[in-house]
């Protein structure tokens, strides 16, 4: 990409709140129901139907705002945003405009070269209702409308134009998803559409120049799509300006199959929506006590957990990021670390063997048969030298298939590590007898064979031999 232009990006994240019912009526928000079954006169926009605000949606929106470090205002106002979409039957969306729920938050997306945090400011968080869904691939030459999603409670989280690269846009979206999941306000499932991202993009000659005309890429539903769409639109804007053209303010769509961004319509401004206060809803008023209760209900959030894991467990940045990617994984790791008394080994097991097993089985971590306590006991055996690393992996596989403590299984299977010289010498002699050529070369001084012979002895002992002792005994036999 051209280095003669600065890229300026702002993100609008639309997040469905995990309520059982819609924001202004009692219809279910469950995903995947038959089209147009979760509807009523309110979300169908029928004459005379009046909205009633969902208290749970307010609670979750408040917690989301606090998790993002925002100031939650004691009064906010719902407004009508007027425009025509076929999947919004009222002809307007109930949203918030000049008096949103919360403002002035921040998201840390990493560390800069000078060691300071890279912070993206959050401009505002406001509540609104989702629109329905247009279905273009169900019927030939006809688009269908499914209004099940219409009225699902949303928060829209608008960043400041602080993002400068596609990679930063992806990192911000990932951190946003993580924070919302930790705060337990949304399942943030991008595949199902409960987390969608609009990207606003402009370019300018330098960081001191005024902002350029922006375009908006709508409804991106994966991190890779965000990053690719940014790169494509940046390159397009550079080509237009460097060829003497001008950027038009318009809404764009990203086609992931063709990997292209194309115009959808001219971009509206706030004046086009003819906002005015929603006459059927009074201002939303939240007292300080209510806001404090929501703050107290928040769990430890990712940034705090990131710092604590690095300090308490002496883990590297990459390990910490991998362990805290999901709250359940972080909690399971801590349980294993407590049970084993060895955080370093616990992290290695969790990020290697355990996650590989979970992914292969299709089960969740909570459903995995090797509990944190059993894994901790296994790690203790390995750390204490009672079983080798190889034997510990064998035991883990057994523990997936049957109950029982790892020590009992190790005794039953003969996997306790053998340090007795006579037993080890017996296995070494058997390996030498079965591999006379290698034994002769090793005795003749070819020391590079020692690792191979250790491996053969470990295999002969089914992993129960102490590899350090085997190395010592073999070293004594070297020519």
How would you explain this protein's 3D organization?
- With about 475 residues, this protein is an alpha+beta fold.
- The protein has 15 helices and 16 strands.
- Strand 8 (about 135-140) and strand 9 form a beta hairpin.
- The mean pLDDT is about 95.
Calculate the mean pLDDT score and round it: 93
How are strands sequenced across the largest beta sheet?
A: 2-6-7-10-1-11-12-13-14
Report the portion of residues in β strands: 15-25%
* Biggest sheet features: 9 strands, mixed
Q: Number of helical runs?
A: 15
Radius of gyration: 30 Å
Q: Any idea what the shape is?
A: elongated
Question: Given the helix and strand composition, which structural class is it?
Answer: alpha+beta
User: Total number of β-strand segments?
Assistant: 16
- The oligomeric state of the chains shown is single chain
Low-confidence stretches: none
How far is the N terminus from the C terminus?
61 Å
Helix content: 25-40%
